[in-house]
Amino acid sequence: MQLIACPWCGPREETEFSYGGQAHVAYPEHPASLTDEQWAHFVFFRDNPKGPFAERWVHAAGCRRWFTAVRDTRTHQFIGPSELTS
Amino acid sequence: MADRMADRTLTPVHPLADRWARLAAVEDGTAGALRLELEAPVAAVDLRVDPRGTGPDAVAAAVGGPLPSAPDTWTAHPTGIAVRLGPDEWLLTSTTADPEEWEFHVDETAAAHGGMAVDVSAQRTSVRVLGAAARDLLAFGCALDLRPAAFPRGRCAQTLLGQAAVLLVAHAVDDLQIVVRSSFAGYVADWLVDAAADSRS
Ligand SMILES: [Zn+2]
Q1: Per-residue b or e along B159-189, where b marks 16 or more CB atoms closer than 10 Å to that residue's CB
Q2: A40 shares contact with chain B (CB less than 8 Å)
């Protein structure tokens, strides 16, 4: 258990947050022109690094804001400041 | 038959009306160190407006008091409170306005500045935790630092109490308000009564 720094509320108990997967996954510019395989890559394929990973988190039991944070997948520790982004 | 037809008026019932006696009994059980009171329903709107624009000031003028600017803070206006829920979100209550009027009043102003307000009066209900043991009681199920210096009057927080998401509003050292979704209110009331019993032993 650790405290996660919500960019709005400040440090809060980990149980107040929910995970939202890899950050910075851009929506395809022309989704209709993708092949099934390309679409499947967009929907299902994610990086799985051993180390720092930029992720989406939501302060579900607090301000309900989504933000991007970097977490080390080896230690589960959050690294550096998180940022509010839509 | 005619009598039954006439008896169709809807009367509002407090979501915790059936637990009133159990909450009230806590005061005797704790020799007055703790008092749990149901708050009368209030009109409430959820306001969304750009914090960098002219909206917040316009709404403040319309309700007669400033909106809170810092995260996790609240302010009082003549008929209720304004709570900062997020960067572009506030909860505004009024003890005197009719819910539809209150929504119209705030929304009319917010809409003129690109924002909006929606009536959420029925969404939440509220329990007041009073007395010298109030903060100790909440600390049983809340991870926040609730000591008076860290959570003084003017502070508020959306957090977990037990398993329920609540809004905690600090009114005084011995006066905290729990604002909770109506469907979770029964759980929170039972949790409070249970925690009060534990705190005595
Ligand atoms: Zn938050």
Answers
A1: bbbbebbbbbbbbeebbbbbbbbeebbbebb
A2: no
* Range of the structural domain that residue B82 is part of: 43-119
Q: Is B35 helix (H, G, I), strand (E, B) or coil?
A: strand
Closest by Cα among B12, B59, B17 to B185: B17
Does residue B3 lie within any of the structural domains? Answer: no
**Total structural domains within chain B:** 2
Which of B119, B134, B161 is where one domain is finished?
B119
Distance from CA of A86 to the nearest CA of B (A): 12
Residue B102 lies in a domain: yes
Q: Cα(B168) to centroid of ligand 1, in Å?
A: 14
pTM for the whole thing? 0.90
Over residues A49-60, mean pLDDT: 96
pLDDT of residue B129: 97
Are B34 and B71 members of one domain?
no
Mean pLDDT, rounded, of chain A: 93
pLDDT at B4: 59
Interface test with B, best of A3, A4, A9 (most B CBs within 10 A): A9
- Partner-chain contact B159 A62, CB within 8 Å: yes
Distances from the Cα of B9 to the Cαs of A74, B5, B12, B39, B168, in angstroms?
62, 10, 10, 23, 34
Clarify whether residues B129 and B35 are in a common domain.
yes
Return the CATH number at B66: 3.30.70.1520
Report residues of chain B scoring pLDDT below 70: 1-7, 201
Residues of B with CB under 8 A from a CB of A: 71-72, 85-87, 89, 143-144, 157-160, 165
